Amino acid sequence: MPVFVDDMQAPFGNMIMCHMWADSDAELLAMADKIGVQRKWIQGHPTLSLPRFRKASWIHFDIAKSKRALAVKNGAIETDRYGPLEHEAKLDLASGVAARVERGKKRLERIAGARMVGDV
User: How is the chain split into domains, by residue range?
Assistant: First the structure.
Protein backbone atom coordinates (compact mmCIF):
# COMPACT_ATOMS: atom_id res chain seq x y z
CA MET A 1 0.00 0.00 0.00
CA PRO A 2 1.75 3.13 -1.18
CA VAL A 3 2.01 6.64 0.18
CA PHE A 4 1.31 9.49 -2.24
CA VAL A 5 2.30 13.15 -2.51
CA ASP A 6 0.74 15.61 -4.93
CA ASP A 7 2.25 18.57 -6.72
CA MET A 8 0.07 21.20 -5.07
CA GLN A 9 2.01 24.32 -4.08
CA ALA A 10 -0.01 26.23 -1.49
CA PRO A 11 1.73 28.96 0.49
CA PHE A 12 1.50 28.69 4.27
CA GLY A 13 3.61 31.20 6.17
CA ASN A 14 7.12 30.90 4.78
CA MET A 15 6.51 27.36 3.47
CA ILE A 16 5.04 25.84 0.33
CA MET A 17 2.75 22.93 1.16
CA CYS A 18 1.41 19.86 -0.62
CA HIS A 19 -0.67 16.83 0.43
CA MET A 20 0.50 13.41 1.60
CA TRP A 21 -1.92 10.48 1.93
CA ALA A 22 -1.93 6.68 1.78
CA ASP A 23 -4.17 3.68 1.35
CA SER A 24 -3.97 2.96 5.07
CA ASP A 25 -3.63 4.99 8.25
CA ALA A 26 -0.76 2.77 9.37
CA GLU A 27 1.30 3.47 6.27
CA LEU A 28 0.53 7.19 6.34
CA LEU A 29 1.56 7.47 9.99
CA ALA A 30 4.69 5.38 9.41
CA MET A 31 5.78 7.76 6.63
CA ALA A 32 4.98 10.79 8.78
CA ASP A 33 7.17 9.35 11.53
CA LYS A 34 9.94 8.52 9.05
CA ILE A 35 10.09 12.04 7.58
CA GLY A 36 9.59 13.90 10.87
CA VAL A 37 6.02 15.14 10.55
CA GLN A 38 4.23 15.21 13.89
CA ARG A 39 1.17 12.96 14.01
CA LYS A 40 -0.93 15.72 15.56
CA TRP A 41 -1.00 17.47 12.14
CA ILE A 42 -2.99 14.70 10.48
CA GLN A 43 -6.17 16.02 8.90
CA GLY A 44 -9.54 14.34 8.52
CA HIS A 45 -8.90 11.49 10.94
CA PRO A 46 -11.87 11.02 13.32
CA THR A 47 -9.74 10.35 16.40
CA LEU A 48 -6.18 11.49 15.72
CA SER A 49 -6.82 14.91 14.16
CA LEU A 50 -6.76 18.11 16.15
CA PRO A 51 -10.36 19.39 16.36
CA ARG A 52 -9.82 22.08 13.73
CA PHE A 53 -8.57 19.45 11.24
CA ARG A 54 -11.31 16.84 11.71
CA LYS A 55 -13.50 18.42 9.04
CA ALA A 56 -11.18 17.51 6.16
CA SER A 57 -12.94 15.29 3.62
CA TRP A 58 -10.09 12.74 3.51
CA ILE A 59 -7.27 11.61 5.77
CA HIS A 60 -3.99 13.33 4.86
CA PHE A 61 -1.18 15.60 5.97
CA ASP A 62 -0.27 18.98 4.53
CA ILE A 63 3.51 18.83 4.33
CA ALA A 64 6.25 21.29 3.33
CA LYS A 65 8.23 20.79 0.12
CA SER A 66 11.26 19.69 2.14
CA LYS A 67 9.20 16.91 3.76
CA ARG A 68 7.77 16.01 0.35
CA ALA A 69 11.29 15.44 -0.93
CA LEU A 70 11.99 13.17 2.04
CA ALA A 71 8.77 11.25 1.44
CA VAL A 72 9.68 10.69 -2.21
CA LYS A 73 13.17 9.60 -1.18
CA ASN A 74 11.48 7.09 1.15
CA GLY A 75 9.21 5.66 -1.53
CA ALA A 76 6.20 7.97 -1.80
CA ILE A 77 4.63 8.11 -5.24
CA GLU A 78 4.36 11.54 -6.89
CA THR A 79 1.00 12.51 -8.39
CA ASP A 80 -0.55 15.55 -9.98
CA ARG A 81 -3.18 17.78 -8.41
CA TYR A 82 -5.85 15.21 -9.30
CA GLY A 83 -4.18 12.50 -7.22
CA PRO A 84 -6.28 13.05 -4.09
CA LEU A 85 -9.52 13.06 -6.13
CA GLU A 86 -8.44 9.92 -7.93
CA HIS A 87 -7.64 8.25 -4.61
CA GLU A 88 -11.10 9.08 -3.24
CA ALA A 89 -12.73 7.79 -6.44
CA LYS A 90 -10.86 4.49 -6.14
CA LEU A 91 -12.00 4.18 -2.52
CA ASP A 92 -15.56 4.67 -3.76
CA LEU A 93 -15.08 1.90 -6.35
CA ALA A 94 -13.62 -0.46 -3.74
CA SER A 95 -16.49 0.14 -1.31
CA GLY A 96 -18.87 -2.13 -3.20
CA VAL A 97 -21.75 0.23 -2.39
CA ALA A 98 -23.62 0.81 -5.66
CA ALA A 99 -24.07 4.57 -5.26
CA ARG A 100 -20.43 5.06 -4.28
CA VAL A 101 -19.21 2.84 -7.11
CA GLU A 102 -21.19 4.92 -9.60
CA ARG A 103 -19.85 8.16 -8.07
CA GLY A 104 -16.30 6.78 -8.28
CA LYS A 105 -16.70 5.89 -11.95
CA LYS A 106 -17.99 9.38 -12.76
CA ARG A 107 -15.15 11.00 -10.84
CA LEU A 108 -12.53 8.96 -12.69
CA GLU A 109 -14.11 9.91 -16.03
CA ARG A 110 -13.99 13.63 -15.14
CA ILE A 111 -10.38 13.36 -13.98
CA ALA A 112 -9.36 11.56 -17.17
CA GLY A 113 -11.11 14.25 -19.23
CA ALA A 114 -9.38 17.06 -17.37
CA ARG A 115 -6.00 15.41 -17.84
CA MET A 116 -6.63 14.90 -21.57
CA VAL A 117 -7.27 18.57 -22.19
CA GLY A 118 -4.07 19.44 -20.40
CA ASP A 119 -5.75 20.92 -17.35
CA VAL A 120 -3.11 19.55 -14.98
Answer: 3-78, 83-116
